[in-house]
Q: What sequence folds into this?
């Protein structure tokens, strides 16, 4: 994944969690309970190389990087939109963890962005 693909991946994932992009689900009892707790609340960095859903994988069916500045601005807008107190959207279900609380979603968003920024030493 290069930096432009990472930006598009984050945009696609944010579109999915607010219902603007359809993503295939793989929810099961393990992911909904133990997996979610490990991913969101265990104080370790997320491992690299874990496969993502094909709809948000830029080498499969995710949005293709075309215009870096436009995609980066879109990411900034998503971060602003997701962190505003008054939301103009309803959270969708997570493709692995299912239904999540506002607190879970905010934690997930922070960890997801942090995970990808670490790939590039940021």
A:
């Amino acid at each position: 994944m290069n930096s432009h693909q990472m930006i598009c991946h984050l945009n696609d994932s944010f579109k999915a969690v607010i219902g603007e992009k359809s993503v295939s689900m793989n929810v099961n009892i393990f992911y909904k309970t133990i997996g979610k707790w490990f991913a969101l609340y265990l104080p370790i960095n997320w491992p690299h190389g874990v496969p993502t859903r094909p709809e948000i994988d830029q080498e499969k069916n995710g949005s293709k990087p075309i215009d870096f500045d436009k995609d980066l601005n879109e990411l900034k807008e998503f971060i602003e939109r997701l962190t505003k107190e008054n939301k103009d959207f309803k959270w969708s279900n997570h493709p692995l963890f299912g239904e999540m609380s506002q607190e879970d979603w905010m934690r997930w968003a922070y960890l997801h962005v942090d995970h990808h920024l670490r790939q590039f030493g940021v």
Notes: Residues 3-119 form one domain. The chain has one domain: 3-119.
